[in-house]
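Blackboard transcription, Thursday session:
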Amino acid sequence: MLPLNDTEPSRYSFFPVMTVLLIIINCFVFYIETVMIGEDYWPFFMKYATTPRLILSVQGGGALSNVTAMFLHGGLFHLLGNMLALWVFGRRVEDACGSWRFLAFYLLAGTWAHVLFILVQSDSRIPGIGASGAIFGLMGAYLLLYPAGRIRTLVFVSIIPLWPRIRAIWVVLYFVGVQIIPAIQILLKEADYSVNHWAHLGGFFSAVFIFLFLRPEAFARYLSDTAV
Amino acid sequence: MSSTEALQKAILAVRAGRKVEARDLLIMVVENDPRNEMAWMWLSGLVDSLEDQIIACENVLTINPANEKVRVYLMELQKKHQSSLARKNVEDAAALLDQAKIHAERNNVDLALRLVEQALEKRENYEEAWLLIGRISPDLDRQIAALEKASTLNPSNPETASTLEQLRYLKINPMSAAARLEQLGKFEEALKVYNELAAKTKNSKEFDHIYKQIIRIEGLQKENIRYVAPTSAIVRLTFAWPSLYLSLALMQMGLNPIAHSVFYLWLGLPLVIAGSFLLSLAEVRSNHIVWQKLFYEQGDGSDFARFVASATGWFLIIIPHVLLVLDSLNRLQNFKIPPMPL
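(Written on the board underneath:)
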């Protein structure tokens, strides 16, 4: 299942400036990562990724590393998947918040994704990278604001590709649902994953903060049970 | 029984303390002989109400205008009567105003205004009643007139003076008045003002702006969008940036602000809150006291005041975040990279 696009129009703004800017920055950082850093990635990640042990022992970049980690990716598909999701879920969340508050919410969701990751895997020395924690925050916010929204999604039935418009609630619940079992396994130390499932869940739950960031009219619409 | 006998019997009854009997006898006397001065005089001391006492004394004076004693007594009674009437009016007016306030709180403005008017009929110089009209009347001119009256009655009330100044400003700036009505959730009245303005304006740009506002408010009404007070929107948005700063600061302190507390990071928090407040204030149109106190402006803040508030807000938000980044960079400079786990 691959979300392709949010099919609903924006209400308040013509263009999602910050979403596009975040995509550009992520791509640019990935370029620096691959072209300039190359094989010698360990010191770079230690400095600019979120490593639970370092954060808890107040070593390394702290808050700065927490932010820079949101812009680092482990491979091209990691980047493309995240950027696609950022575009799909970010556009209308930005519309409901306004660009700057959207940025603040994005960083907040990413930070709380890391907080949960650090708390659950506190003795880990493996650096956590990727925008996915923040993007799960956007997914959660999208679910709260536009539960009836429809997402054009690519699905394969056997080998046949289909792209139906699926209700946002099912798309988001699918992506959150697939995090739960691996997250429990990590908690019970039964398995080790290269995907940061707890950060995804942390980001998702941080979506409750979205109400602090909504435009006044969007908030009034939410309270009135009308399309935000 | 003759009138004279009845009068004598009545006097005896008064002296014996049988007042009711005496009064009945005297009433009988004056019914038979309405020009019996003595009977009216005795009766004036026996009737219950002040009004009846006055009537009795007046009858005495009609019969004998030279009765100075009764004249003086009548003047005293009239004074007493007037003051009791005034007291009653004050009490009635206060009761009416209390009811008006209750209806005003329930948004029954018409009924509240009718009650205030009744209160003012009872007591014209009732400052509180004029103030209530100044507060709740949907008619700006009437609000101004009411507050002017209140201000005349009590020129030392600074609140009245300040509200009056604001209302005069809104009268000169009807666009602000319409925006203000919208802020108060009075969409119908705001639409009325906008429609009047649209009919009056000859500037096409201004007309477009007004038309957009009309379409927007009509849309809100059609979709039945709930009214959210500007103050609550400001408070809500004020917490947006501090929540991010607090999360980042927490991360900087290793998720343990007690063990790894960094003093200046805590100092940054009130700055971010203040900055976030100013940003919210610049965004949410409201008749906030900040515009009056800091910028000496009425209404919901001029473009200049909003720009200054917004710029100051950003400055206050950015500075603590920059300090946070500098602290991180400082830590990175002294950071020894641990070996890669095998």
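Lecturer's comment: The CA atoms of residues 288 and 300 of chain B lie 7 Å apart.
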